[in-house]
From TrEMBL:
Its cofactor is NAD(+). It comes from Nocardioides dubius. It holds the Pfam family Epimerase. It comes from the Bacteria. Its EC number is 5.1.3.2. InterPro entries: Epimerase_deHydtase (IPR001509), NAD(P)-bd_dom_sf (IPR036291), UDP_G4E (IPR005886). Keywords: Carbohydrate metabolism, Isomerase, NAD. Belongs to the NAD(P)-dependent epimerase/dehydratase family. This is UDP-glucose 4-epimerase.
Length: 325
């Protein structure tokens, strides 16, 4: 009996694998290493390198490792780039998920935790998003995640697939100095790399109607996020009811300037970010309520902003010159 983690060699997936091991569950990793690293997979954890688009490989992996449930983290996660690469995004996020779900059905596997996204909401007209907030994705990435949720819903009705989808905004920090965020599009690694090159980070817009004039967003620690995925898997294993969707949010958020201040304090690198014009379409504030997830999944913000930054910085430093740019 084991849980398959798709994308388990990536930044988020590798933390999910560690959390499964800590909970005495048995993870198996399937990853094509397009953005992940084989070194992120712990010794002793079965690792299958390949794509979810390979139906035979997926079926063989499920069978040979006696998989009883799946935590589906794999996907093309770059919302902005997805606008230029819509077909690639749908192939990686929709077609691949279809292959996975068909293989699960054929193998009699009826439990799936889906790593979805708050991008399904688009730009909501509320300051605090709840699960009842209307979905209105504004990129192929957000659309692909919503389609994935629809697929799960319909499979649940048709043949009893047990499932839940976890939506979240900005994932930061590190649960281990050996696991780091290598995304070329995420705020923390972008700012760290700029500082290490001697460049000056920038803030897009300093005149928003927020306490310090910069955008406010949800930032959640990756280790906290991983625990929520495992809690969802455990409830599915126990046959306990779950909502179709949960937000993993802070309920309050942090501003971009607060992030910059925390990075200055943690790194010891003195800098004053350049303030540029607003980016089109950036709302002043979007944060999500995590009340439902707290009720059912034990969700909570276990790390302060300082701890998020310091853990991410320690992992970045440990990576050294091997850090991909």
């Amino acid at each position: 009996m084991s849980w398959l983690v798709t994308g388990g060699a990536g930044y988020i997936g590798s933390h999910v694998v560690e959390a499964l091991r800590a909970a005495d569950l048995s993870p198996v990793v399937l990853d094509d290493l397009s953005t992940g690293f084989a070194g992120f997979v712990p010794e002793g954890v079965p690792f299958v390198q390949g794509t979810l688009l390979d139906a035979d490989l997926v079926a063989t992996t499920l069978r040979e490792h006696a998989v009883t449930g799946v935590i589906h983290v794999a996907g093309y996660k770059y919302a902005g780039v997805s606008v230029q690469r819509p077909l690639h995004t749908y192939e990686q996020n929709v077609s691949a998920m279809l292959v996975l779900m068909r293989a699960m059905k054929d193998a009699g596997i009826d439990k799936l935790v889906f790593s979805s996204s708050a991008a399904t909401y688009g730009t909501p007209d509320v300051d605090k998003v709840t699960e009842a907030t209307a979905t209105n994705p504004e990129s192929p990435y957000g659309e692909s995640k919503l389609i994935g949720e629809w697929m799960l819903r319909d499979a649940g009705v048709a043949y009893g697939l047990q499932h839940t989808s976890l939506r979240y905004f900005n994932v930061v920090g590190s649960g281990s100095v050996s696991l780091f965020d290598a995304s070329p599009h995420n705020l923390f690694p972008l700012v760290f790399d700029m500082l290490m090159r001697g460049a000056t980070p920038r803030i897009n817009g300093g005149d928003y109607p927020t306490p310090d004039g910069t955008c406010v967003r949800d930032y959640v620690h990756v280790a906290d996020l991983a625990l929520a995925h495992v809690a969802a898997a455990q409830r599915l294993d126990a046959g306990k009811p779950l909502e179709r969707v949960y937000n993993l949010g802070s309920g309050a958020g942090s501003s971009v300037r607060q992030i910059m201040d925390a990075i200055r304090e943690v790194t010891g690198i003195d800098f004053t970010p350049e303030v540029h014009e607003r980016r089109a379409g950036d709302p002043a504030q979007i944060v999500a309520s995590g009340e439902l997830a707290a009720r059912d999944l034990g969700w909570q913000m276990r790390h302060t902003l300082h701890e998020m930054v310091s853990s991410a910085w320690a992992a970045r430093q440990a990576a050294g010159d091997a850090y991909p740019r």
